[in-house]
């Protein structure tokens, strides 16, 4: 285990993903007469309601008003806008906004122009999600939602290999960041599963790029936070989609046992031994488990049983290892046996394994159910501070002592604290 090359990504609060931007180093308020000279000027609005929506993001921590919001009906509209700014003696900030799911204002353009990428999906009549079954990839517009990509690929018995926990985000938005979830240990983040991109550069040029074609741009844009261009199309690797998911949550009181099991699970030889295809982890904050949006996995009796661990005998947090086995109906009879053999190798608290069986679609869309729960309580639009940290294996125990059992010991913060084990070579 000493040579294990793994790291943990700690995600604090609701899992959301930064939405990409294209920005100059300065802020400039474009004169209306300049923008009005464009043939796309009618697609620029300064409507107060639209401006207000484009002045905020999901984080709720930052607010900045643009001079206008651009509602493109095609990619060529975006090309014209960016080229105009680049060639103008008075260039202005442009921010491409998908779902505005950033947390620190990355999708905002103070005094500039916000491009509403979702406007393309509302107005374009073209086929924006195309599945190539023989080639095993899907072409999707940067403005398309991952949930729509999933629905379309499932029609062909396929699905992308790597996901984010929350699917109501745009393809371009997550690829401008990373796209991390419980499949990352196996397939890498979403940006490691892209064959090709169409990108509008800062000069207003439309360029197709890949690992072999315009590779500098390709690798700069993937995870580049929108600083190198606007993604308008992505060619994404797919694989045969399973039909069902055996979804397990295991409870630990000892952090060393918890991390040791996570590390072992992500280094298993998947070809020789059946393991999980999805692995996450989380911190359960004592008796507050029942109020968490993630608690819908558990029955009322399960929650009461787990909450009992937070009594006088339990010092420190409770940890939850989450894993899933994918399967098809023809192999359903083998899943229980494979899961039982796997669980025998793990060191969770006896009697504290909990299992659900769901469709593959319901599993991938699991956070949406939590979203609906939060919306019903008026908690979806509250401020969402969020921190994402990579911690090496060599320091994860120190992090537990200093943060989980220290800083957070008497903290009443809401929202999940997620711990992903990740192989560095992915």
TrEMBL record:
<feature type="signal peptide">
    <location>
        <begin position="1"/>
        <end position="23"/>
    </location>
</feature>
<dbReference type="InterPro" id="IPR016164">
    <property type="entry name" value="FAD-linked_Oxase-like_C"/>
</dbReference>
<protein>
    <recommendedName>
        <fullName>cytokinin dehydrogenase</fullName>
        <ecNumber>1.5.99.12</ecNumber>
    </recommendedName>
</protein>
<keyword id="KW-0274">FAD</keyword>
<dbReference type="InterPro" id="IPR050432">
    <property type="entry name" value="FAD-linked_Oxidoreductases_BP"/>
</dbReference>
<dbReference type="InterPro" id="IPR016167">
    <property type="entry name" value="FAD-bd_PCMH_sub1"/>
</dbReference>
<keyword id="KW-0732">Signal</keyword>
<dbReference type="InterPro" id="IPR036318">
    <property type="entry name" value="FAD-bd_PCMH-like_sf"/>
</dbReference>
<dbReference type="Pfam" id="PF09265">
    <property type="entry name" value="Cytokin-bind"/>
</dbReference>
<keyword id="KW-0325">Glycoprotein</keyword>
<dbReference type="InterPro" id="IPR016169">
    <property type="entry name" value="FAD-bd_PCMH_sub2"/>
</dbReference>
<dbReference type="InterPro" id="IPR016166">
    <property type="entry name" value="FAD-bd_PCMH"/>
</dbReference>
<dbReference type="InterPro" id="IPR015345">
    <property type="entry name" value="Cytokinin_DH_FAD/cytokin-bd"/>
</dbReference>
<dbReference type="Pfam" id="PF01565">
    <property type="entry name" value="FAD_binding_4"/>
</dbReference>
<keyword id="KW-0285">Flavoprotein</keyword>
<dbReference type="InterPro" id="IPR006094">
    <property type="entry name" value="Oxid_FAD_bind_N"/>
</dbReference>
<comment type="similarity">
    <text>Belongs to the oxygen-dependent FAD-linked oxidoreductase family.</text>
</comment>
<dbReference type="GO" id="GO:0009690">
    <property type="term" value="P:cytokinin metabolic process"/>
</dbReference>
<dbReference type="GO" id="GO:0019139">
    <property type="term" value="F:cytokinin dehydrogenase activity"/>
</dbReference>
<dbReference type="InterPro" id="IPR006093">
    <property type="entry name" value="Oxy_OxRdtase_FAD_BS"/>
</dbReference>
<feature type="domain" description="FAD-binding PCMH-type">
    <location>
        <begin position="62"/>
        <end position="241"/>
    </location>
</feature>
<dbReference type="InterPro" id="IPR016170">
    <property type="entry name" value="Cytok_DH_C_sf"/>
</dbReference>
<keyword id="KW-0560">Oxidoreductase</keyword>
<dbReference type="GO" id="GO:0071949">
    <property type="term" value="F:FAD binding"/>
</dbReference>
């Amino acid at each position: 285990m000493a040579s294990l090359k793994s790291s943990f990504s700690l995600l604090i609060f609701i899992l959301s993903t930064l939405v990409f931007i294209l920005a100059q180093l300065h802020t400039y308020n474009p004169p209306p007469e300049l923008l009005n000279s464009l043939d796309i000027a009618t697609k620029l609005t300064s409507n107060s309601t639209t401006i207000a929506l484009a002045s905020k993001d999901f984080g709720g921590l930052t607010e900045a008003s643009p001079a206008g919001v651009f509602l493109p009906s095609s990619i060529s509209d975006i090309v014209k806008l960016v080229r105009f700014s680049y060639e103008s003696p008075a260039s202005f900030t442009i921010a491409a906004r998908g779902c505005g799911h950033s947390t620190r204002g990355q999708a905002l353009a103070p005094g500039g122009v916000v491009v509403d990428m979702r406007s393309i999906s509302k107005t374009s009549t073209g086929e924006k999600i195309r599945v190539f079954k023989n080639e095993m990839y899907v072409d999707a517009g940067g403005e398309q939602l991952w949930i729509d990509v999933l629905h379309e690929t499932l029609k062909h018995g396929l699905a992308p290999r790597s996901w984010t926990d929350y699917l109501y985000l745009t393809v371009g938005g997550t690829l401008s960041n990373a796209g991390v979830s419980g499949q990352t240990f196996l397939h890498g983040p979403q940006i490691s599963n892209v064959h090709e991109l169409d990108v509008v550069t800062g000069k207003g040029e439309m360029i197709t790029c890949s690992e072999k074609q315009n590779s500098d741009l390709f690798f700069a844009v993937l995870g580049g936070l929108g600083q190198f261009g606007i993604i308008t199309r992505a060619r994404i690797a797919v694989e045969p989609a399973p039909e069902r998911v055996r979804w397990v949550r295991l409870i630990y009181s000892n952090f060393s046992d918890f991390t040791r099991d996570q590390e072992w699970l992500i280094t298993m030889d998947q070809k020789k031994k059946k393991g999980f295809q999805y692995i996450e982890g989380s911190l359960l904050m004592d008796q507050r488990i029942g109020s968490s949006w993630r608690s819908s996995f558990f029955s009322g009796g399960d929650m009461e049983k787990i909450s009992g661990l937070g009594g006088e005998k339990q010092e420190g947090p409770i940890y939850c290892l989450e894993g899933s086995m994918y399967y098809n109906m023809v192999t359903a009879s083998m899943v229980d046996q494979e899961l039982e053999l796997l669980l025998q190798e793990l060191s969770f608290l006896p009697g504290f394994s909990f299992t659900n069986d769901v469709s593959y679609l319901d599993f991938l869309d699991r956070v949406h159910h939590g979203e609906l729960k939060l919306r019903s309580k008026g908690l979806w639009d509250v401020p969402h501070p969020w921190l994402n940290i990579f911690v090496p294996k060599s320091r994860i125990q120190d992090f537990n002592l200093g943060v989980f059992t220290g800083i957070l010991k008497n903290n009443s913060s809401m929202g999940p604290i997620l711990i992903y084990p990740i192989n560095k070579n992915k």
